[in-house]
Amino acid sequence: MSYPVRPVAWVRSTRAEPTDDGWDAERAAIELADDVPDEALDGLALFSHVVVIFVFDRARDAPPAPFARHPRGNGAYPRVGIFAQRAKDRPNRLGVSTCRILSIAARRVEVEGLDAIDGTPVLDLKAHIAQFGPRGEVHQPAWVDELMASYFTDPPS
Amino acid sequence: MSYPVRPVAWVRSTRAEPTDDGWDAERAAIELADDVPDEALDGLALFSHVVVIFVFDRARDAPPAPFARHPRGNGAYPRVGIFAQRAKDRPNRLGVSTCRILSIAARRVEVEGLDAIDGTPVLDLKAHIAQFGPRGEVHQPAWVDELMASYFTDPPS
């Protein structure tokens, strides 16, 4: 059983290769696909953030990629399941990012914090709604904080 | 151009029909599909929340569903684009919810706040990582707060 999904938009980014970290240094926009009408973006400008669902189209599905691994292949991090990490080589190769909206022009949304490379197919955009949470107390293991330290902002060198 | 995506898990919920609001009254779990190994969940129990990506498999894709509409078909809300609302009748019919993890047993994650009905195909689970935001100041139009007032908790009757 499978479902076909199609691009409704495309990522335009100053990053062309799938490298880690430092995403805030890139400029990125989302451009509607030709068969999506302008009105699909109506009203989005009144939200501060948008949730972007995309396909890591140059990553490997799992399988053949493993269902458990050390994040970034780094043995200093625990070996955890693919659902306990954000690796791009995963079942269905889907990415989800919540991005700040910088501006919206006809058929194009400029965003900050989109960790997807140039040419990435976008499957959906959803206005970020605060009530969708997370609700309640939030926690995560310490290895995540270590891994995320340079994800958006590279450390000064 | 399209990509095939497949269920990696299934929603088990006490709600069987697609009705609005009051989701906190439901009990829900996510059960791994037969071809996904147990280890895919390793380490997830150390996170408080999980992001669930699913298919609204009983909804209508857009098109034929419209790309702009009044949320819930209610003229009291402004007519906005499909990307400025969370309606289930949308391009690719994808849903994303951030749920609190209640417990994890072998191949089964009990969650709170999953707004998906029984039998819904799940495409991915991602541990919720605080650094993924939203980052910066968050705002949304007033109609959203009105619409969301009873989304999780029904008002006392």
The CATH homologous superfamily name of chain A equals: YaeB-like
In spatial order, strands of the major sheet of chain A run 2-3-8-7-4-9
Binned, the helix content of chain A reads under 10%
Largest pleated sheet of chain A: 6 strands, antiparallel, barrel
The oligomeric state is: homodimer
- Total domains of chain A: 1
- Overall structural class of chain A, as computed from helix and strand content, comes to mainly beta
What is the number of helical segments of chain A per DSSP (H or I, 4+ residues)?
1
Give start-end ranges of low-pLDDT stretches of chain A: none
Q: What's the CATH first level of chain A?
A: Mainly Beta
Strand content of the residues of chain A, in percent?
Answer: 25-35%
Tell me about this structure.
Two copies of one chain form a homodimer. Chain A is mainly β and 157 residues long. Chain A has one domain: YaeB-like (Elongation Factor Tu (Ef-tu), domain 3, Beta Barrel), CATH 2.40.30.70. Chain A is built from one helix and nine strands; from the N terminus they run E-E-E-E-E-E-E-E-E-H. Chain A has one helix spanning 142-148, and strands spanning 3-5, 9-13, 28-32, 49-55, 68-69, 80-81, 94-105, 108-112, 121-127. In chain A, the strands form two sheets. In chain A, strands 2-3-8-7-4-9 form a six-stranded antiparallel β-barrel. A two-stranded antiparallel ribbon of chain A has the order 5-6. In chain A, a hairpin with a 2-residue loop joins strand 7 and strand 8. The radius of gyration of chain A is 16 Å and the shape is globular. The mean pLDDT of chain A is 95. Chains A and B meet through strand 1, strand 4, strand 6, strand 7 and strand 9 of A and strand 1, strand 4, strand 6, strand 7 and strand 9 of B. Strand 1 (3-5) of chain A pairs antiparallel with strand 1 (3-5) of chain B, so a sheet runs across the interface.
